[in-house]
Design a protein that fits this description.
140 residues; mainly alpha; 0% strand
Length: 140
């Protein structure tokens, strides 16, 4: 739902004929690419966290190792997403500030904080999930 809300806001902003409209579409493109990867590869292993935090490990959790490996293998691609998001977010922030659009400035800061959280917390957690499961499950 968060992804849909963010993209919808950027779609609406992108209809403006001001500089922020054009930059909003750049941010939307960068975010949509990352969000698609996030939904397909990064988010699924996170559902295991409540059980893993309790020390529960079952063989049917092995699928998350493959997902973790995909995140590791896509490190450069993911970094590219974050770089594109940062550049577009900074551009939108500048445009919104010059247009005195404080709502969009706040929105951009929230997007940037979320993206930083992905890079510094979510993605490393996914790698830890894979490492943890690999250490607890017998090799196949």
């Amino acid at each position: 739902m968060e992804h849909e809300s963010v993209l919808r806001y950027l779609d609406n902003l992108g209809q403006r004929t001001t500089p922020s409209g054009a930059v909003a579409l750049k941010l939307r493109t960068a975010l949509a690419a990352h969000m698609a990867f996030e939904e397909a590869v990064e988010m699924p292993p996170l559902v295991l966290l409540p059980e893993l935090a309790k020390g529960i490990v079952r063989p049917d959790m092995r699928w998350a190792i493959e997902m973790s490996d995909k995140v590791l293998a896509a490190h450069d691609k993911i970094q590219g997403y974050h770089n594109a998001i940062t550049a577009a977010a900074l551009g939108l922030q500048d445009a919104a500030e010059s247009e005195h659009d404080e709502v969009t400035v706040g929105f951009v800061r929230d997007v940037a904080a979320d993206d930083l959280g992905d890079a510094e917390v979510t993605e490393p957690i996914i790698l830890l999930i894979g490492t943890f499961l690999r250490s607890r499950l017998p090799p196949q």
